[in-house]
Here is the input.
Amino acid sequence: MAKFKTSKTKAEPAINTASLPDIIFILLFFFMVTTTMRENTLMVKIKLPEATQVQKLQKKSLVAYIYIGEPVNKTLGTKSRIQLNDSYATVNDIPEFVTKERQARNEAERNMMTFALKVDENTKMGIVTDVKQELRKANALKINYSTRKVLKR
Amino acid sequence: MAKRAAPEINAGSMADIAFLLLIFFLVTTTMDVDTGITRILPPPVKNKNENVDVKERNVLKVLINSHDLMLVNGKPANVSNLTTKVVEFMSLHPNDKSYPQVQEKFIPLLGKKVLMSKGIISLKNDRGTSYKMYISVQDAIAKAFNEMKDQQSLKYYGVKYDQLVDPNKIKVINKLVPIRVSEAEPENVGGQ
Here is the structure.
């Protein structure tokens, strides 16, 4: 009679955790796909101004960033500086920057490039206007003023 | 005799490995969606002395000085009532001389002629204006144009502009409400 034990084990059956890695992997893949690593280390302080009527920037691969703000390094003073890629630049470097960014893109998409201006809210418009004039001269006409979205001011 | 089950590989630590990777990506992820106000700059001027003649009544002059104070057509104004001023200015008043002129324009996608205002918002800022002020003015003007787009969209399609799906309809509305903002060359009056 002992051959078929109606084994009624006393211990609670453990919860099956075999599918736990799968769940974690799904989460992992989600974050892997959505991750965008920061391309540039910021060398200027930037607190973006707020705006209500904002649009999302389409096609990140077609966006080039221009940063303007006070240098993080205090020894460089408090005058607003322009940062292109990973170094400080002057207004005169903008045309070269535009050509380089254009050349890095697909030929068919070059005309659709956007130049996003990430400018600190306390910057004076003088430097921003200079940058805009240079962009105009370089025929980079589509620009985007980066802002933080707020629902109401 | 029943087959003996092959010993299972212990997958208990699999979760830990996955967790480690997960935490790494969680930490490095920056989910900032880039948002902003998109504008098209005017193409570079070839002939500097060439001035486009625009009638006085067609222009709403918005001036911002180095102390972040605003003048709209010569009168002091602030950001909160700029939006209504712009909407009011761009509204159609064919017989009123104090509003901009109107012109008939044929919209191919709509298949008929519509009246459109010839008004232009001229935005002029000083070199000493703060970027924050400049953006809030741009924002107020953008809000005005978005309101007008909503109006047109409700009139023709019964839904608001951002609920339109058909790209042709969006094109029609963008044709009906062109963003007529001109940015003059800056002046250096107040100093930096």
Observations:
- Chain B touches chain A through 47 residues (CB under 8 Å).
- Residues 56-183 of chain B form one domain.
- Residues 3 and 9 of chain B are 18 Å apart (CA to CA).
- Strands of chain B lie at 35-40, 59-64, 70-72, 75-77, 102-107, 112-117, 120-125, 181-183.
